Amino acid sequence: MSEHLLEVKDLAVSFSSYAGKIRAVRGVSFHLDAGETLAIVGESGCGKTVTVKALMKLYGNSAAFIEEGSSILFKGQEVVTMNNKELSKLRGEGIGMIFQDPMTSLNPTLTVGYQIAEGIRFHDKSVTKAEAEKRAAELLALVGIPSPEERIKQYPHQLSGGMRQRVMIAIAIACNADIIICDEPTTALDVTIQAQVLELLNELKEKTNKAFILVTHDLGIVFDFADRIQVMYAGVILERGTKYELFDDPHHPYTWALLNSVPSKQSQRKGSLYSIQGTPPDLMMDIKGCPFADRCDYCMPICKERMPQEIAITESHGVSCWLEHSMAPKVKAPAAGGEE
Amino acid sequence: MEDKKVLFEVKDLKMYFPARGGKTVKAVDGVSFNIYEGETFGVVGESGCGKTTVGRTLLGVYQATAGDIIYKGKNVRDFNGDDKMSFSKNCQMIFQDPAACLDPRMSIGTIVSEGLNVHYKSMTREQKEERVNQVLSYVGLTSDYASRFAHELSGGQRQRIGIARALAIEPSFIVCDEPIAALDVSIQAQVVNLLTRLQKELGLTYMFISHDLSMVRHISDRIAVMYLGSLVELGDNKSIYGHPVHPYTQALFSAIPEPDPYHSWLKNRVHLQGEIPSPINAPAGCKFCTRCPKATDRCKVEAPALREVEPGHYAACHMLDI
Fold this sequence. Notes:
The complex is a heterodimer of chains A (about 350) and B (about 325). By secondary structure, chain A is of the alpha/beta class. Chain A folds into 2 domains: about 5-225, P-loop containing nucleotide triphosphate hydrolases (Rossmann fold, 3-Layer(aba) Sandwich); about 235-325, no CATH class. In chain A, about 30% of the residues lie in helices and about 20% in strands. Chain A contains 11 helices and 13 strands. Chain A has helices spanning about 50-55, 85-95, 100-105, 110-125, 130-140, 150, 160-175, 190-205, 220-225, 245-250, 255-260; strands spanning about 5-15, 20-30, 35-40, 65, 70-75, 75-80, 95-100, 180-185, 210-215, 230-235, 235-240, 310, 320. In chain A, helix 4 (about 110-125) packs parallel to helix 7 (about 160-175), helix 5 (about 130-140) packs across helix 7 and helix 7 packs parallel to helix 8. Chain A starts with 5 loop residues before the first strand and ends in a 21-residue tail after the last strand. Chain B is α/β, with parallel strands linked by helices and about 325 residues long. Chain B has 11 helices and 12 strands. Chain B has helices at about 50-60, 80-90, 110-120, 125-140, 155-170, 185-200, 215-220, 235-240, 245-255, 265-270, 295-300; strands spanning about 5-20, 25-35, 40-45, 65-70, 75, 90-95, 175, 205-210, 220-225, 230-235, 305-310, 315. In chain B, helix 6 links the parallel strand 7 (about 175) and strand 8. In chain B, helix 4 (about 125-140) crosses helix 5. The radius of gyration of chain B is 21 Å and the shape is globular. The interface between A and B is large, with 46 and 41 residues.
């Protein structure tokens, strides 16, 4: 199975806090191949960002740690046991990351040219300062920033939000990483700028053979960008599949709810939107059954007792729900557009 | 259309803020519209277009630089003390960030009843408590919440408290300034459903400010589209979303992400070059001319006026002359 570019198995990440252990990610497994795009969708606090940060052990001094038994194989190498030197090589060269908020993730006291060149020179010591700067300007041109030679001398505050996000993308691709992780890349941007940035990412996808992981809560952008989608909730993956499978034939009640709670062009105006009652579970607690059971309209007694196994519907489409069991009542997904 | 009662009449409203170096930020630059009783008036636009400033100026948070706001037939500039009190009782606001707009040291009960102390001085403590419990039940919370503090609540619950606080003094008009921007999708639907239900039950009028275009389409009766402090298009929901005529509106709406893998909205959208210019040195003429795919020489010198393209549907664009 080691032919996958990235293979994650039973990844569990916890945070220690004064009140106990917070189990943010509770055993997720997935893989990624070169050239494909995987989207991780879920609400805030479902563990999607924690999952992708774990791929590079990007926790700094925070109280997070990867639980025993987790395995992250990048090109066949185990990431969990890597030392700092190996990790430094992995970050940037192996996996690049685009963060959510370009305002806080760029250093305000350094020029954007320096910040792009920093990674290039770190990973290849033979590159001179002038060469790295030249490369930075080329990267800025690649991400669609006009007059890059002048822009590399500017500071982040002199750029607009969309341009800052383009700089972030330039930094992420500067060292030819095989995987680019986009953590909510357009959340902080306006819709017209969001469309521009997504278009740029799509272009990069076509030009290069990089693999992308898109982390987002916005279902609208997922279907245009990703090949495969996995839906996360309370630290586990509830459903996964290609975008067509999840759109045409979603199986999990949470996926139905996510798809229906966004007003679409067809949905009835002022009709009530489909909404999920309640709030996600407390991640400090042990969750015995399905984490979505308390909010699920189709909850059965078994749902609160045992976590369902993932059932394969097709080779690429899997769902963890007791409704798939042969003894469960047959329910149909609610029609899009809400009630009334 | 004609029998609707006008609640607010806004005429050529301007709100300028001083900026460094003697410059001015023209946050709102000559905006006119009416808000009718019982409707939801949506205001959309990208960040920095002045939509929040319009809402705040309307409620008197800012003193307008120029222009008139006429509330129920009376200009707000001519308000005396009593008028001001009744205006602030009737017109309330829900804020964007529910975490920032609740005092962390006050209990929810104190936060919700604060307005009562000003507007219902004769109420006894018991009556106030009862009122707090009543509005908490409006927003779907039990009375136990009155003794809790903001940090004990989730984001969606905090936003409900923000709504309960606005409702406590029985207003008739509420400015909802990005009420769902800070919430998760499943919680957004809860809050929007709540707002729609309250409007039906209490006969409220909303001004719904948001950059979430699909939510505005869902909730609003009439919609105003703003760009760089100006109104570019105004009309009822159907005509604005069905056949927008202003190039900016067309581009903006085509950029709404649609969750559909078979039809790529990204490829079919109207392309806009560049980004919004700064409101400190907005372009002369039509403010959209720097990014407009159809701009002509005339657009660069002469600002277009809002004209009626069909009954109740207005747009400001020179292209509509022909």
